[in-house]
Structure formats: structure tokens, C-alpha cells
Automatic annotation (TrEMBL):
InterPro entries: Tocopherol_cyclase. This is Tocopherol cyclase. Pfam families: Tocopherol_cycl. PANTHER family: PTHR35309, TOCOPHEROL CYCLASE. It comes from the Bacteria. It comes from Clostridium disporicum. GO terms for molecular function: tocopherol cyclase activity.
């Protein structure tokens, strides 16, 4: 029950096969010139192992560090993951990674984390769906936003992340959905807003449906748009970019992505617990966001987020 009420925790203690779990840390420097994604995780399958994925957004480079399954350790009481000499938590990360192409070492500390508002009945960002045991893929937003202190040495270059921004989420289950979309930015020009948006085709006993989790903050106010709260979503694809509108009661959220097809990185993702290369992600897109109160026709927010993470897969694009 503790892992249901605290979705940040590792869910694979009693799993032996057909299971994956991964935590996603997106890191952006204060000057917005360097974007890094670090993904520690574990795959339980015929090829069981733990891993750390590293995406370098501006360089459009990708590395997959593979470790033994037994190199993976997780705490039972709070988010703490160790893989070999590397550690990950809500308080920060320590990295000591090297291969023939990449050497990365250093520690970063996180503070002022903004959490997704939840309750015992609706824990985490997925809410009541956490209690269902047959879902193909589960998702949790661990931190919508946060501040960074520290530096990383990347191929002997010191990258200064002081006063930068961190975003943290995780996924676990058997496989990514047959189609999905993810958009995230907490680096808007005016520093007033954040957005995280994920949607996917959800297998269900009677009929599949498109589920979505969208969380927006504006001036420290949180606005959720989700399947659970009966928001209505419209999605269009134009020239490999997304036009999305979602309505919840008197609130209307509009998103438009601006991407460069050459900035997408091919990454590994889970299929029946195995990690295979089929995920496309960019860390350097832009997203235009508008939030309107339709009851009194008031503009709550309009702005553009940089260093935007966008990921998609399956039949969506």
C-alpha cells in the first residue's frame, strides 16, 4: 500500500519479469544554454539489467549506460535510487559515469520542489488509477519544478547548473502505450509558469481510451487538467507540431509546440519490460501556452517556454 500512496517509490520489489521502472531528471542551466536529461532505471526481462540514460539536448547526443541488475538499489521509505556509484533522490543526484564517448561526474542539490497536489484517495499525479493493478504503464510527476545548486564535469568541461531548473517524473509497468505524447517546460521567459503534459492510449478491460495528465502552474497556483477530473481534450498534428486544447469547467488551456525535426534523439524505451530503441525525444523545443478563464473571458497567462521536452511514439505522429 505504501508504494500506491507514495508513487515516487520503486514498484518492482516483487517483480521478476515483464517489468520496467525509470525516473526522469531534466536539468537546465540558468542561462538556458544547456539541457540534460538523466534517466536511471531497471528492466526485468530475459535481458534483466539496470541502466542510466543520458540525453544532451543541444548536442543531440545520447548514451545508454548498462549495469548489472544487482547494481540497482532502492529505499523502501522514500525516493532514493543507487545504481553502482550513482545516486538519485528528490534532494539531488550524484553522477560518476564514463564510456568511450562520455565522462560525466559531479553532484547537484535540489530545493524548492513544487509537487503535484494529491490526496490518499487520489495519490500522486495519476490519482485513483494507482490502485488499479492491470494498467500497462503508470506515470508519476515527482516535481513540477525546482531549483538546482552545483556543477557537473562533462568531458572535462564544467557545466554550471547553479540557479538552474529541475523537473522530475517517473514511469513503470510493462510497456509504454501504443501511442503517447509528452510535453514539459519549467523555463518560461517570465519564470511565472510551468507545464507538464502526457497522454497515451490506455488499454482497459472494456474499451481502450485516451488518458491524459496535464498540470500547469501560474504564479504558484496549480491547474490540473486530467482524465480523472473529466477535462475535455482536442489534439491536432500539423507539420510534426502539436496543437492541443483542453477544457476543465471554466478554464481553457491551449498549447502549441515549435520543434526542429533534427533535434530529436532516438532513445530506449520499454516493450514488455525490455528496453528497445523506439522513443523520439527533443529537449530544445518551445511551447506556446495560453490559459483563459472563459467564464469572464480573462487571460490568466500567455507565454512561451524554452528548453521544452517533447517525446512521442507509436501511431500519434
Amino acid at each position: 500500500m505504501s508504494i500506491i500512496r507514495n508513487p515516487n517509490l520503486y514498484h518492482g520489489k516483487n517483480k521478476k519479469d515483464n517489468f520496467f521502472e525509470g525516473w526522469y531528471y531534466k536539468l537546465v542551466t540558468k542561462d538556458r544554454k544547456y539541457t540534460l536529461a538523466i534517466i536511471p532505471g531497471i528492466s526485468l526481462s530475459s535481458d534483466s539489467h539496470s541502466f542510466i540514460q543520458v540525453l544532451r539536448g543541444e548536442d543531440v547526443l545520447y548514451d545508454y549506460f548498462r549495469f548489472y541488475k544487482n547494481d540497482f538499489f532502492s529505499s523502501n521509505s522514500y525516493l532514493k535510487i543507487n545504481i553502482s556509484n550513482n545516486s538519485f533522490s528528490l534532494d539531488g543526484i550524484f553522477l560518476d559515469l564514463y564510456n568511450s564517448k562520455l565522462k560525466i561526474k559531479g553532484s547537484l542539490l535540489f530545493s524548492n520542489l513544487v509537487k503535484w497536489s494529491d490526496s490518499i484517495i487520489n495519490p500522486g499525479s495519476m490519482g485513483f488509477y494507482n490502485y488499479l493493478k492491470f494498467m500497462e504503464c503508470y506515470s508519476q510527476v515527482c516535481a513540477l519544478d525546482g531549483d538546482i545548486k552545483g556543477t557537473l564535469s562533462i568531458n572535462d568541461n564544467i557545466i554550471d547548473f547553479n540557479d538552474g531548473k529541475v523537473y522530475i517524473e517517473k514511469n513503470w509497468g510493462r510497456s509504454f502505450p501504443v501511442e503517447w505524447l509528452w510535453i514539459q517546460s519549467n523555463t518560461f521567459k517570465d519564470s511565472r509558469a510551468t507545464i507538464t503534459c502526457s497522454l497515451g492510449e490506455i488499454p482497459f478491460p472494456l474499451k481502450n481510451f485516451r488518458g491524459f495528465l496535464i498540470g500547469v502552474t501560474v504564479d504558484n497556483m496549480f491547474f490540473p487538467f486530467t482524465t480523472m477530473n473529466r477535462s475535455k481534450l482536442d489534439l491536432k498534428v500539423e507539420n510534426n507540431d502539436i496543437l492541443l486544447t483542453v477544457i476543465h469547467k471554466n478554464l481553457r488551456l491551449s498549447l502549441k509546440t515549435i520543434t526542429d525535426t533534427n533535434s530529436f534523439i532516438l532513445c530506449y524505451g520499454p516493450k514488455n519490460g525490455q528496453m528497445v530503441p523506439f522513443v523520439k525525444e527533443t529537449l530544445t523545443a518551445k511551447v506556446q501556452m495560453e490559459l483563459v478563464d472563459t467564464k469572464n473571458n480573462t487571460l490568466i497567462y500567455s507565454g512561451e517556454g524554452s528548453n521544452t521536452g517533447i517525446e512521442f511514439g507509436g501511431n500519434l505522429m
